[in-house]
Amino acid sequence: MRFRRFLHNPAVTADEMVCHACHGTAARVAGREIVVAQDTSELALGGRRARASGYGPVGKGGALGGLLLHAAIALEIGTGALLGLVDATIWNRDTGAVTPRRSRATEDKESQRWLDTTTCASEVLAAANSITVLSDRESDFYEHFARRPTNTHLIVRACQNRKIKDAEEADALLFTFIDDLPEADRYSVKIPAAPGRKARAAELALRFSSVKLCKPLHGAAPDLPASVTLTLVDVREVSPLEDGEPVHWRLLTTHTVTNTAEARRIVDLYRMRWSIEEFFRTLKTAGFDIEKADIGDPQVMIKFVAAATVATVTVMQLVKAREGTTDRQLADAFEPDDQPILEALSAKLEGQTARQKNPHPKGSLAFAAWVIARLGGWDGYYGKPGPKTMRWGLDDFQRIKFGTTLRLQDV
Description:
Blueprint lengths: L1 H7 L5 H15 L4 E14 L1 H5 L3 E3 L5 E13 L5 E10 L20 H13 L5 E6 L6 H5 L6 E5 L5 E2 L7 E2 H6 L5 E7 L8 E15 L12 E11 L10 E6 L6 H12 L2 H10 L14 H24 L16 H12 L15 H11 L11 H18 L7
Parallel strand pairs: 1-5, 5-6
Antiparallel strand pairs: 1-3, 2-3, 3-4, 6-12, 7-8, 9-10, 10-11, 11-12
Helix pairs in contact: 2-9, 8-9, 9-11, 9-12, 10-11, 11-12
């Protein structure tokens, strides 16, 4: 009931929840090399009943009703540590008629979210040593590159076979141009397992070149420059594949690339984009099952999604910190008053054997991850605690924390 009142309180807004979380992220990125992974996911909340409650169309054909969430998270280059939320926008689609895409300015399209999040990242993470924003093929449009903030680099998976300015051909196309270049390098990588995909070793062929994209003839704002100079890094899997699709990424980046080591680094940075997929999976099936929420009012559901988004980041921070390799501190995900509670719980939960002892230093996020995982049902012996275990453990921790605030006169 208290949570229901919280969500229905008109003074509580999704923007304020997101802003508070991003403020904490800003304090953690100072002096660090940061990548920002951003993406959009549809939250399907039902069919006819959801549409009748005012939820806009999502999914193929628009038969389902729901919301959309565009989120961005900050990750540290090198350790892969999740430092926090950078931006989150939740909206309910208008069910009215939509004018043709080319007749609308970018600010009137959903595409504007990619520019807004990139701008937000440049402001929230201003204290970082470097900022590189990663995004998939949906963000491949000219204005995204032309209007990027000066303190922010982009790596975008190319979708459109754009016209480029080439000294040898008047009408060169981006994909044809890179396909005709000789391989610059071949190297082997391990591709980890993912839902629907087994882990495998892959041999990759690498090509790269500076390219000059031409301004589109239709739909581009008149004040945009006639061309934008970028680097195209093409990486494709050439080893035999038993099943599934081979890796083939054409990556457009504002980073300068002059050798194979720098080209490989662009590929490695883009691989960190997988964290945003893990984020949405945790928010949905692997952690919170948010699409099962039965909230009839779309505006209240937007607040609930914002709260769950912040909580999902905390769960992911704990999962990433469980090995003790990210060197992150307790303050990344917990309040200062939480430390003595976590230390008391650790002492209570430890067993007699070495594997039942908390191996991590006090004050570290890994120390907290061990405690939360044990509260969530992990026995310390088998497997690694995942998002669901961490979520259950956080639920128990919050109840225990509330219990520490009780006094006899409150009963």
